[in-house]
Amino acid sequence: MIKNLKDIFMLLFGCLLVAFGTYFFLAPSHIAAGGISGAGIIVNTFFPNIPIGLFMICVEILLFIIGFIIIGPIFGGKTIFCSFSISLMILLMEKIYPTVKPFSSDTLMQLIFGVLICGAGMGIVFNKNASTGGTDIIAKIINKYTKISIGKCILIPDIVVAIAACAVLGIDKGMYAMLGILLNATIIDRVIINLNTYKQVAIISSNGKKIKDYIVEVLDRSATIYYAKGAYNNNNNEVITTILDRKQFLKLKEYIVKIDAKAFITVNEVNEVLGEGFSSII
């Protein structure tokens, strides 16, 4: 139950970042940096009476049906939740702040901050096996069958939007859009990698039992134990190995310092862990 609530909170937070970055940074500067939001900016330029949020909802319904059929109901359910959340958030922002001017006269700064915020939000959403809807569903389908990173998959449909931006908004805006798409893809991949980075820890300590108990009972993680012989004095040592997230590792390190300041610890970063307690292997 707690995990489900945490996942919902993370999805909503990711959606809020995407909506905020789109409405307050990209849209005011007419930067169509890919996706349905970018297409919405292009349409809104021609037809100001069509709200960006309303356009996104209509297009996302069609793409959602496709994603639901091809990828599955779990992904589909999360995606419809995220896509409508973003659209409704943007509609709400349009009601509260109907006239939004760029924060900066520098279009490049608007682009960088907008893409940073949106890319971080999209990375959070993708990491929870969902998408923000729109062309992201197409990217997720490509990722499913090709195993290309999700950031690179997003480039494919978004480039089409960028080409349209060149034709509609001018070559300058189109070039900004292309730069935004490349930055967005890179940020999404980096966010996903960082969210899935764990610490592989190996510990040799005279208080091994206390450390094992702390890992299992307090950190709620398992550990593997093996024995090794030291080359210097030929002593047999118990080696405890475990995999933890960043916060768990900091807690474990603080605990070890308290009970055995002479413990020997090695740490490696791993970018993906599959299996029980981590990401599904399927």
TrEMBL record:
Listed transmembrane segments: 50-72, 79-97, 109-127, 148-170, 176-193
Stretches assigned to the DUF2179 domain = 221-275
User: Which keywords describe this protein according to UniProt?
Assistant: Cell membrane, Membrane, Transmembrane, Transmembrane helix
Pfam families (alphabetical): DUF2179, YitT_membrane
| Localisation | Cell membrane
| Keyword match Cell membrane | yes
Q: How does it sit in the bilayer?
A: Multi-pass membrane protein
Task: Cite a GO CC annotation.
Answer: plasma membrane
Give the InterPro entries listed for this entry: DUF2179, N-reg_PII/ATP_PRibTrfase_C, UPF0750_membrane, YitT
The name this protein carries in UniProt is Membrane protein
| Species per Swiss-Prot/TrEMBL record | Clostridium tyrobutyricum DIVETGP
